[in-house]
Design brief:
Blueprint: E1 8-11, H1 20-30, E2 34-39, H2 49-53, H3 59-68, E3 73-77, H4 83-97, E4 102-105, H5 123-151, E5 155-160, H6 164-167, H7 173-193, E6 198-205, H8 214-217, H9 223-230, H10 240-250, E7 262-265
Parallel strand pairs: 1-2, 1-4, 2-3, 4-5, 5-6, 6-7
Helix pairs in contact: 1-3, 1-10, 4-5, 5-7
Length: 271
């Protein structure tokens, strides 16, 4: 018997084989939750080599893993910057599962989407990064919150932020700014929704060994990765599994007095 038996989670940005979204979705499923897993519908030709070698099928592969755990999954392609697609994702979840208890806002633009010197950063790249990470979280949170309010028994929402909000590199301005905005959104939404029994919190991962970092550090990893890891006080990178497991724990009864917090999981990186 799992702690989330009979409950339903929605996880965005959940299609990568080496990703926090997949790990969070599996963590919910292992505790009995049914899970909607959404992604952008990536072109398979852009998949990392290990995904191609494994015959990976993005959110469909994650859904298959969840099914093998004995619970149902709904794989969806959705652009979180589009309110109509977000609403369709929420509606399909409720139509299939009858409820929503948890939301994980994990969707984010590619790591190099706006990687540029300040003077070279384009308006298009700036807007794209902020739209996905901040506007996407707002749209998903609002749509799911309306369902939770109608249900009347509360719920839990977790935003995946980043320690880049605190340790930003000069070429990472847009992503760091989006992370800082999501930090503020988390604290304010946490205060606004707590009276409805809806807890909003955030996790702020440090350098984590996911495929999002391939564009920066290669795969297999480069010497730059080794130097980055060496700078982390605990002496290693994070794993998507430990971030995903913590996200699920934040949604549990054991964490029900935690509201509006942005918790850094970074091995001391931002300390």
């Amino acid at each position: 018997m799992g702690k989330f038996d009979g409950k339903v989670a929605v996880v965005t940005g959940a299609g990568r084989m080496r990703g926090i979204g997949r790990s969070a979705a599996l963590a919910f499923a292992r505790e009995g939750a049914q899970v909607t897993v959404s992604g952008t519908g990536r072109d398979p030709q852009t998949f990392p080599q290990d995904e191609q070698d494994a015959g990976w099928k993005d959110v469909d592969s994650v859904a298959q893993e969840i099914n093998r755990l004995g619970v149902e999954a709904l794989p969806l392609v959705a652009d979180v910057t589009r309110s109509d697609q977000v609403q369709a994702m929420v509606d399909r979840t409720v139509d299939l599962f009858g409820r929503i208890d948890f939301l994980v806002n994990n969707a984010s633009a590619p790591r190099m989407a706006a990687w540029a010197n300040f003077e070279d950063l384009t308006e298009e790249a700036w807007r794209h990064v902020l739209d996905v990470k901040v506007t996407g979280a707002f749209l998903c949170t609002q749509a799911v919150t309306r369902v939770m309010m109608r249900q009347g028994w509360g719920g839990s929402i977790v935003n995946v932020i980043s320690v880049e909000a605190k340790i930003s590199r000069p070429t990472d301005l847009a992503y760091a700014t989006a992370s800082g905005a999501l930090y503020t959104f988390t604290t304010k939404a946490g205060r606004a929704l707590a009276p409805h029994g809806i807890r909003v919190n955030g996790v702020s991962p440090g350098t984590t060994d996911t495929s999002r970092n391939d564009a920066l550090y290669g795969y297999p990893r480069s010497q730059e990765w080794a130097a980055r890891v060496e700078s982390i006080p605990i002496g290693r990178a994070g794993t998507p599994e430990e971030i995903g497991d913590f996200i699920a724990w934040l949604c549990s009864k054991e964490a029900e007095f935690i509201v509006g917090q942005c918790i850094e999981i970074d091995g001391g990186q931002a300390t």
